[in-house]
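Hey team,

Sharing the Helix-turn-helix transcriptional regulator run so nobody has to redo it. Sequence (421 residues) first:
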Amino acid sequence: MELTGPGAVPALTAAYEVIRQPLGEVLPRLSAVLAGLVPHRAAAELSTHCAHSPFKTHGDPEIAARLTTADLAPLLASGTPGRPWQGTLPLAGADRPVLAVTSEATQRGAVLLLVRDDGAAPVDASVLALAQALWDVVTSHFDRLATEAVPGALARSRTAAGTRARVIAELGEAYAAAFTGLLGVLRSRALDDAAARGTATDLAVAALVELRADAERDQEIAEEPAGQAFARLADSLRPLVRYSPVRLELGAPESARTVAADVAHTARATVRAVLLTVLEQDGVSRVHVGWRLADGELRATVRDDGPGALTARRLSAGLLQERLDVLGGRLAVDAVPGWGSTVTATIPLGAVQDPAPDPLTALGERELQVLARLALGQRNRAIAEELHISQSTVKFHVANILTKLGVESRGEAAALFHAAA
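Structure output:
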């Protein structure tokens, strides 16, 4: 849409009002902005740039609560960016008129779905153009937040992504077990009504297939193939050297593995930052950029033939090292004067695990006192005399200690104490 004339200011104001909202309020605000032009009962988005919450809904709970990624994934795959689609889809138990807007403002695309009232009139071209422009602005804004995330936001994203993955896995196992049990019952020969049994079996099989499809879609959104992630990096690096004498060599990863979206984002951002620093040097004629996946890590390497004067302090300025720290990554610089520098960013492919909790935190003060003396090899009588309590009280504390620590003997409890200390 060309932002000129009397409609330009309202359009820009609408875009500003949407993107200035907190992330969780962007879809509700976008829905409110479009409601006057495209009346609708519910809105949903599928935004593949977001690793931890790519699917969001808003509006009438009767519809919004029943929408799933399975409803939007085909629209994302078949939609044409720049050409919003109007039609009817089976959603939330009924055929409903919808408007679907697809954007290519991000590499992997995003789709906005507006579920309209029955009998709603078609939307005219000018309103479609405004809806497209607003959705492009929103997806561009989100993509920038994802690719240039500050460490705090990246940490929250990583934590949410890990929690989401665990919840999906647990729900998948629970539903799979439930449906498997249902199939076993319905296939039992003790049931007489063959028609009912067959219908129920078909429904259960369809539910299992859909559940597995949802899990696959979630993985596709939260992760991407390493080769595809590197290709996106290559596309963003080529313009940096297009008009310079530096020759850029690219080494794509020789792996079919997928990498988490936040790992790919951070690796790309790190390489771009390092390359920009490398290009500031005099005497650089060739730079090699490569990724390698091995030993549960992604190693991104930038090697130049410059003066060999790069330092870790120079490269770690700003948010670069902080972003790597969030994912448990590290940056290494190997500079040889007169021969060039090699910079390697190493990022674990899995989420950084929190340290195991101290098992002794479950014990009370008196129990810790008893355990400390037990770990020294003292018997109950000696402990009782030193703490001025009875032997029966010592036995009571020892029993509680074994229970809380989940061990069966005084020796195991003593070993835990020494390990924690």
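Confidence is low (pLDDT under 50) at residues 1-9, 352-356.

Ping me if you want the raw files.
A.
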